[in-house]
Structures
1.
Amino acid sequence: MEWDKIWAVNRKVIDPVVPRFTALQKDQAVLVNIAGAKVESKDVAKHPKNEDIGLKKTWYGPKVYIEGPDAACIKEEEVVTFINWGNVIINKINKDSAGKITSVDAKLNLDNTDYKKTQKITWLTSVDGAVNSDKGALTP
């Protein structure tokens, strides 16, 4: 079977009914410090187009992680969209002496709901006390 046919079956049969979860590759995760973010959780849909699948608890906070390749694609002063949260303005991209991104400083811009021309980024929060607990927060 050709890959395009496998993807077509996936889109038609599997994709509409499978819940969405987020995972990051630990050795490539980049810390994002988000000014103005508070530690809180919200229940969000497990699937963006099928609420019948149910809800999942998503944690928010001032320290989140994104994938290294996503960090490499963003620019300072750019507005990016953190999926299931909202828009964030990238203030500073911090790099080590070798040029590797070590962290990103950003601020929430939740009043800006224009998501059309923004890069969409998946993320995970680092919430003290929620890791390995029944609260469900994840961290690399």
2.
Amino acid sequence: IFDSNFECGNLDRACIISLSKYDLYLNGDTNTRGHCQWFYFAVTNTGANKTVTFNIVNCTKWIPLYKLGMKPLVFSELDFEANGIGWTADTFNVSYVRNPVMTENSGSCFYYTLSFSYTFKYTNDRVYFAASRPYSYTALQKLLSELKGNLLAQARNSF
């Protein structure tokens, strides 16, 4: 089961191609004209040792960092609880290629497909996938609040 109903999640829909392959469509990145490069979604109801391939089919950035070794990141809730392991780059068979579909309102720009595979380690896990380590608005607000508190404490102590 796919989910992105959480802060920074941006999966629009998932289409099953086979029991181990899915085509994914992203919502456009914030403050862009429909560009899709960032992704963050979760998969639940997993099976241990099951390998799945994900194809994100509506990427729009032509600079292929994935061809230079970048890998999508993975966070397993059960792996974190059992072993303290956070975000890892445990995806494999990563590829980034131009697909034949043209972007909307464009006569010459094509979408790109990011494909990667992952083998789930646990049954009934909740596993998150992201382009990079997510940094949410809530985390930023928490940091700014802490910094403000520290500055106020320093100001009080200096007088």
3.
Amino acid sequence: MNEQERAEAVGHCKWVDKVVLGSPWVLTPEFVEEHQIDYVVHGEDLCLDENGKDVYSWLKEAGKFKTIKRTEGISTSDLILRIIKDYDDFIRRNLNRGYTREQLGVSYVKEKSLKAENTLKKVKETMEERFHDISEYIKKYGPWEGLKIAITTPFAHQEGHPVNTHPPEEHHQVHSDHTDGKDLTHDKKIAD
């Protein structure tokens, strides 16, 4: 958040009457009087000037200083680390939603790198699915027949169109042969 955004967020607290932008790091009694500041609020960490003196000591003595207690388990550093850790996922997700790299403040190289990672991930998933299909064919039909079926069967769910991954069923057709005036009937296997 920039300074304006932070001031806006703090200004919405019900106990805040006014937020003074651009205030100095070390407050003076004149600055506090000019802006009619009732309290200065800060976290528990100690703030020292270049001489090692607590910059808020005079406000504490005057009863105009309030401390915000640290919430156990929550820190700005932890939040920033969580955001940074998931940064690539955030960018990838929003690129897939249709945001441009310019809107996300991402370089051309970063955009292409994330898109290439997505493509590789899809290829890996497809290959894992195909390997699973091949393994199932081998278990069901044996190594040679299973491999033959796997090789001749297109990739399952290729380009979002599910295909029948089962091998062609054999059908039996009765065929009539007229030889020497005799009607010979026999089964002939015909594949789809």
4.
Amino acid sequence: WSMTKALLAVLIGMRVHQGHLTLDQPVLRNTSLRRVLQMADILPIREDYGETGDVPRMLFQEPSIINFIESYPEESGRQTRGPGAWYYSSALSNALSHILRQTFPTLEEYWRFPREALFDVIGASSFVMETDQSGLFVCSTF
């Protein structure tokens, strides 16, 4: 999953090039796509991999990654430093996957996009992007 972050950035860049996104549009917590791609410190979710940590809970216990991110109680998490600061965040890369998903009218088109736009073009016939239970590509650590 961790390697999909680079692929996700390419796929988002393709959607920007196609005119479906712009780098300066606000996409998450009133933060621009550009800053979200740069891992802006805007989500209170802890990058904790322990047995009861936020990342394993997001990836293995929640049916929808994006619902976990959107419903995470601000007061339960860590103090963020704002969009001007950097923070490595698995949740943020998965939020980017959701932003990519929103550029397609159907889930099936979203699922086909990596294969048709990138993998087939570069001859990567064995690449697989896994999804959570809701169908969102998992693009984070683990």
